[in-house]
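Late entry, evening session. Most of the bench is empty. Finally got around to the prediction I had been postponing all week. Sequence below, unchanged from the version circulated by S.P.
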Amino acid sequence: MGLLAYPFLLFLHIVYSLVVFSLSLWCRIRRHTPLPLNASRQRIPKHLAVLFVTDPEIDLITTEQRLMESVECAVKWSLEVGIEQLCLFDNEGILLRYSESIRDLVAPSPLPSKMQISEPAIVYPPTPPMSDYSESRSLSPEGFESSVPIARMSATSPRNELRPGGKHATFGKDDSKTLNINIVSREAGKPFVATMARSIAWSERRKQKVGAGCEDFHLSIAELEKHLEGPSGLSPPDFMIIHPIHPSKYNRFPLELHGFPPWQIRLTEIYCDRLRKQYRSRLMWFLPLEIRAAFLSSSLTEWEFREALDQYAGAEMRFGR
């Protein structure tokens, strides 16, 4: 019986491998072109998170360039499709360190001609709010919510005051859109939960010393969510796009969150383009690091963004009770 089991199992493994390979090849060949950005979709995420995965094979300068290019495009595309909130995250905290540079990056330049009115430029308020991130702030419960390591900003698409209509231009309605942007790092994940727990414990201990209460303290889920997802926290995203800076290498490994706050993705749809390849790094070992990184690295593309929106629009969601 054992002599027959081995060839039978071997045959099953061969058939399974052929089926998986055929399906993968078929998906590559029959990959549909995603809908345009301005196409009508069944649903659009209100809160979109974009997780950028850096790689040590890509030098820091190239990584920063790819991140800035991706952020600028993500903000522009989010405004165009009507997304209300955008969360930007990278596993090294580069975006948070360069939050002020991001403000300048997505700020618009003056429009030299009427032809640029329809362009999805981005306008910031005259006095944009400063970043909420500060490592020197007190961890006392009174000022704890303001110590969340998140940089906040908002972008607004310009109002289309003129609408072309033959030889004459007609006035259109106010269709300006506002996008709230949150820049988050790994520090907003488990380190923030640990800091919050210490702050709450210190507060309760001080109350017991003063004599305000002697009952045992129990941290409820509602109170925990108030700190994590309150006005000064981070609300859960509806949809997440995972974009590796080095897609050829990352797509050969299992999908990870790389320190993104795990409690924020209980009902989050996740997209990652696992079919995308750039180049194999082992074929470029003789090139300088800067040149090799330029070939291997990749910014967020409009194809990815559109395909991700199509996936979210076609996802079957069952939230339960």
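Two things to note before I forget:
The beta strands are 47-53, 85-90, 150-156, 162-165, 168-171, 178-184, 239-244, 269-271.
Confidence is low (pLDDT under 50) at residues 109-146, 161-172.
Will write this up properly tomorrow.
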